[in-house]
Specification:
Blueprint: H1 13-20, H2 27-35, H3 44-55, H4 64-68, H5 75-95, H6 105-110, E1 122-128, E2 134-142, H7 152-162, E3 166-172, H8 182-198, E4 201-208, E5 213-215, H9 216-221, H10 238-245, E6 252-255, H11 287-297, E7 303-306, H12 313-317, E8 324-328, H13 332-343, H14 349-360, H15 369-374, H16 381-397, H17 401-417, E9 454-456, H18 460-463, E10 471-474, H19 483-486, H20 488-495, H21 522-531, E11 537-541, H22 559-567, E12 572-578, E13 593-600
Parallel strand pairs: 3-4, 6-12, 7-8, 7-10, 8-9, 10-11
Antiparallel strand pairs: 1-2, 1-3, 4-5, 11-13, 12-13
Bound molecules: S-adenosylmethionine.
S-adenosylmethionine binds next to helix 12.
């Protein structure tokens, strides 16, 4: 085997490169320069030739492991080659995306990356053929987007000339916030309408900032989890997609894209918080969403009414010294915690701590009403005995209603934490696997913020006739599942009348606490509530729970009814946010959208 030094200088790769440039060298010669030296029995040119021949046109995808299989190539040489390839690939990728085929918002953005840093607003149009290959890129406007300035001709003129099958529009927000503004949506709607008439597909409208991307297409598809455009003439236009997501009767739908959840500011460790309760339909994770709508729509307000309060987390979010929170729920098991957390004005914390300590140390070896019915099923026998004994004791050791509410609340929270359930009491889990011992804690509340508050336990339709407020927040049950069925056990514990219980789930008679909002006649109850509301702003949470197999999760009031009823009091806006809703597992949970209907009361 001749060694490289035996080859005449002019035939040596390095020398040839320096003399004649890279084009004069074959692939294996270029590789030889990279590898540098041969191995025993093989000079560098032969080694390189062997590699090029072995991998052929798969050369660019060679891995370190592939190279290590070639005798004479060690780790250092393999790494050298693979790194060089990666480096070149990286630069090429940055220069030009593959074939300029636009199959996603990301592809479109990489073709227009220059506008991301612009200080002025740009509207750029990508013209695509039926296979989504880029035909042309055109700047349509520079300056603030305005539907009265943008003329569809500027977009669709070139589209017709180029015989483009579709367009993708990109717009930059120098502010950094990629959420579409009202103007953006007006422009988009105008362009989409025009595209439909012209027969040119408006595939996407994308907003970019230095760091963020928002795509209407991706947004409309999130529920379907299909984020790539479809080429070959099958692509749905935004017109169709938005029509699916935006029913014709709707007024303005505002999509919320920010991360709205922020936990409560004040949390004292080692105490029970309102949000600790496992409660179906509780809005804890949607508080930021609701708060943002209130901030946007309800200027100065002094009275906030949470008329279907449940856990009370929504009212608590607005609970400040100067604000009166009216919280109401017709279940005693909700009313008592509402009173404790939001209604307690004076309390001797030391006294409460002492009593809770004593209750935690209460011995309970004998059976009682609670353990007889709920022991060894919903709770371990030991916990059930203690719950029953503690509840009995609370009635004996409390001096006033405030104190009693606080201690019962502590017991309700503690009970829920050791329940052998999935979060409600329609059934218990077959296997008794929740064996933690019961432990009461002091509820975490701020009496100084509660001074103006009013707490009620009334039917919302009765209460609405007696109160007035600035903001009325309405969060009724959406479907046929009665809260009194789901929380019969806590209701039983809160009221402590020791009623007869029936069936496997051990439910007491609940006929007096059935909600009209779970019945066929829900829309009538809602219409009555709205017509009697004495307030400036109405916010309604109502979920599109979709169709479930057993029908129990289907919404009782349809969108048209909601909007018609609210419109009788003023203009309506809808705010939407994707949210994972509760179902029993029998329904499809994908694509649930949590909505807030807002009405500015003018009539
Ligand atoms: C969807 S939950 C409210 C959840 C609450 N926003 C939260 O974040 O915890 C509905 C509540 O309305 C109560 N409710 C149902 N019908 C009622 C009525 N007619 N009057 C008063 N409260 C009612 C239920 O007891 C339940 O607590």
């Amino acid at each position: 085997m001749p060694k490289l030094k035996d080859i005449p200088r002019v035939d040596r790769p390095r020398e040839r490169f320096l003399e004649k440039g890279s084009d004069a060298l074959s692939k294996s010669e270029l590789l030889a320069i990279l590898i540098g030296s041969g191995v025993k029995g093989k000079n560098v040119k032969q080694l390189s030739k062997q590699i090029v021949r072995k991998f052929g046109n798969k050369f660019l995808d060679i891995t370190v492991d592939d190279l290590l299989k070639i005798s004479g190539i060690g780790k250092a040489k393999a790494l050298q080659i693979v790194s060089a390839l990666a480096l070149v690939k990286r630069f090429y990728e940055e220069l030009e995306p593959k074939d300029n085929i636009v199959l996603s918002a990301q592809d479109a953005v990489s073709l227009t990356s220059e506008i991301r840093n612009k200080k002025k607003e740009y509207l750029v149009c990508l013209y695509l053929n039926a296979r989504n290959t880029l035909l042309k890129k055109e700047i349509i406007s520079i300056g603030i987007l305005d539907k009265s300035i943008i003329h569809p001709r500027e977009i669709f003129g070139p589209a017709v000339e180029l015989r483009a099958a579709g367009v993708v529009l990109l717009h930059n927000h120098p502010s950094g916030d990629v959420e579409p503004s009202k103007q953006d949506m007006e422009v988009v709607n105008k362009i989409i309408e025009a595209g439909k008439i012209m027969g040119v597909n408006v595939i996407d409208f994308i907003i970019v900032s230095k760091t963020d991307i928002y795509s209407i297409f991706a947004d409309s598809q999130t529920a379907r989890k299909k984020l790539t455009y479809i080429s070959d003439g099958m692509q749905n236009s935004l017109f169709d997609l938005l029509e699916i997501g935006q029913p014709i009767y709707s007024p303005t739908i505002k999509k919320i894209h920010k991360i709205y959840f922020s936990p409560n500011k004040r949390v004292t460790p080692g105490r029970f918080q309102l949000q600790n309760r496992r409660f179906l339909g509780n809005k804890y994770k949607l508080l930021g969403f609701i708060e943002d709508i209130v901030n946007e729509k309800c200027d100065d307000f002094n009275v906030f009414c949470d008329i279907f309060a449940g856990t009370g987390v929504v009212g608590e979010r607005f609970n400040e010294k100067d604000i009166k929170v009216i919280a109401n729920d017709f279940l005693t098991s909700n009313y008592i915690p509402l009173k404790a957390f939001l209604g307690t004005v004076t309390v001797d914390f030391e006294e409460i701590e002492k009593k809770i300590d004593a209750l935690n140390n209460l011995e309970a070896h004998k059976d009682n009403y609670f353990s007889k019915h709920f022991g060894d099923t919903y709770f371990t026998l030991e916990n059930a005995r203690r719950i029953g004994a503690i509840r009995e004791k609370i009635d004996k050791i409390t001096n006033n209603e405030n104190e009693k509410a606080i201690l019962i609340t502590s017991l309700l929270c503690a009970t829920d934490k050791v329940a052998n359930t999935v979060g409600h009491y329609d059934a218990y889990r077959k296997k008794l696997d929740t064996v933690k011992p019961l432990r009461l804690l002091v509820p975490d509340f701020e009496p100084e913020n509660n001074v103006n508050n009013e707490i009620y336990k009334e039917d919302a339709n009765q209460l609405i006739r007696k109160i007035s407020c600035d903001v009325l927040y309405i969060d009724p049950p959406y479907n046929s599942r009665q809260y009194s069925d789901a929380y019969h056990l806590l209701e039983n514990l809160a009221t402590w009348k020791k009623p007869l219980v029936h069936g496997k789930a051990k439910k007491m008679n609940r006929s007096h606490i059935k909600s009209n909002y779970c019945l066929q006649s829900a829309s009538k109850a809602f219409a009555d509530l709205i017509s009697n509301a004495n307030c400036k702003h109405i916010l309604l949470s109502y979920n599109n729970t979709g169709e479930s197999k057993d029908g129990r999760s289907n919404a009782r009031i349809n969108d048209k009814q909601i909007i018609d009823i609210l419109k009788s009091r003023g203009e309506v806006d809808i705010f939407e946010r994707d949210y994972k809703a509760f179902t029993t597992g029998k329904s499809d949970t994908a694509g649930h959208i949590e909505r807030v209907f807002y009405c500015k009361v003018t009539k």
